[in-house]
Amino acid sequence: MADDQRHQRRTGASQNRGQSRQRSRPSRGRGGPDGSFQQVMLQCLDEASRRGSRSAEAEDVLLALARNGSPETREVLAEAGLDPERLEQALEQERRAALASIGLTDPDASLVTAAPRDDERPLWGTSLREAMGRARHHLHRNRSGLAAEYAIIIGVLLAGFGTVPRALALAGVDRDALIGRLQRLSLQQTGPH
Amino acid sequence: MPTEIPDPVGGAADHLAAVVALRELSERLEDAAVEEAMRAGWSWSQVAEALGVTRQAVHKKHLRRLAAAGIELRRRHG
Fold it and tell me: What are the counts of helices (DSSP H) followed by strands (DSSP E) for chain B?
């Protein structure tokens, strides 16, 4: 692995919140595992690793979908102002605002740059578990890949507090409008029931 | 009287978010500082004492990462 990759950590960008002590494993939904669901979760863990985080949180699955989701999902997110670049900026803005609220700024990058944990799989953080729990309520019988992605995003967006709602609020993203749109698109995927 | 839902931004929400950000920064600072110390020839015991934790705890948390990075690590007796 190239040195720049081994030492790649966006300054302060990794999120390590509410680490779960339990081993990370993709959860199984009712009726057995859903391939699309598991694939998204693996991408989520990759996202957390890429950012140097020890735990995968709700924002990581959002990033994973913004980057690697289906074209339809990526388009919906981009139209809401959540393409990968703007989502990363929003998360960064949130983190800096949080530190600024107590009079702090980022330390010099050299103070927080370290060898990565390449061989350690990120744990499922609390916010991710809770988002997936909410997502399951929106997963219908027909768990097509696209419907699963929409449900996951809805699960993430329904958080009332924490990093994602803060980042979206600070970036001026209309969370309610996006949730509504995703719910309508989900119905189109699954049909009336 | 209906319970008012706090805003996720501002006031206490900002300060709670600061706790989260500091928690993350603390982890990253530790990773970098431990690596810096080991590169400078510190022993595991010395690093552990400086951090106020056991040598075993430091080993568990950092040994694999630093070994994989090819950092020369002092043996026991240090």
Answer: 3, 0
First to last CA, chain A: 50
Q: How many CB atoms lie within 10 A of CB A119?
A: 8
Q: Which of B9, B15, B29 sits opposite A111 (nearest CB)?
A: B29
3-state secondary structure of A55: strand
Q: For residue range A11-60, what is the model confidence (pLDDT) as tens digits?
A: 444 444 444 333 444 444 333 345 667 788 899 999 998 777 889 999 99
Scanning B11-70 for CB atoms below 8 A from A yields: 13-18, 20-25, 27-29, 31-35, 64-66, 68-69
Q: Which helix (H) or strand (E) holds A56?
A: strand A55-56
Residue with tokens 């309610």: A176
> Are B58 and B47 spatial neighbours (Cβ–Cβ below 8 Å)?
yes
Residues facing residue A2 across a β-bridge: none
Per CB-CB distance under 8 Å, the chain A contacts of B68 are 115, 118-119
pLDDT digits (tens, 9 = 90+) for A153-168: 999 999 999 999 999 9
Q: CA–CA separation, A104 vs B20, rounded Å? A: 13
Closest CA to B20 of A61, A24, A125: A125
Is A93 part of the contact surface with chain B (CB cutoff 8 Å)? no
Angle at alpha carbon of residue A59, lines to B5 and A156, rounded to 5°: 50
Chain B residues touching A97 at Cβ < 8 A: 9, 14, 17
Could you write out the DSSP letters of every residue in A122-191? PEEPHHHHHHHHHHHHT--SS--HHHHHHHHHHHHHT--SSHHHHHHHHTT--HHHHHHHHHHHHHHHH-
CA atoms of B14 and A101, how far apart (whole Å): 6
